[in-house]
Amino acid sequence: MHGLLLAAGAGTRMGMPKALVRAEDGEPWLVRGVRALADGGCAQVSVVFGAAAEEALPLIEGTGASAVVAADWAEGMSASLRAGFAAAAGTDADAVVVTLVDLPDVSAAVVRRLLDPPPDARTLRRAAYAGRAGHPVVIGRDHWAGAGGLAAGDRGARDYLATHEVELVECGDLATGADVDRPQA
After folding, report:
1. What domains can you pick out in the chain, each with its CATH number?
2. Which of 53, 54, 75, 172 is the 20 to 30 A CA-CA neighbour of 9?
């Protein structure tokens, strides 16, 4: 299983790229995201960088994650997703678990739940919180070209997922799944 942590955006509402944000305890959100994917069952994790990539790269040193830089990151989440798919295409992974850096309460427990039963190349599965679809999303290899092809701007796999049968896995008992777009008070 290959985990993709999308962390390329400029974070304009946050006031800084989210790849550089740290939790109150000082831990980078990047490290939390990598740990959630790795401890959740992803043997490989790739972090997709864009804005402030040079500053953010050192934050994942020692995590075991590999870095992917989306040169066209300013186009939006779609560029990050395509870069992640390209990185995973060179592996033997049947599926990827895609999550976002700005979901600091999504833990390994959420990822583990999404990976049970083990996904295959046909899988489309996503976490739900109180019945509302969210991230992470498990996308089987058979869907990478289609999802990447429909991705545009800040709409990653959303349009593709809307036209396909996707298994929702309730995770509201494990996390809120809420993305953090603004500095916390």
Report:
1. 2-170 (3.90.550.10)
2. 172
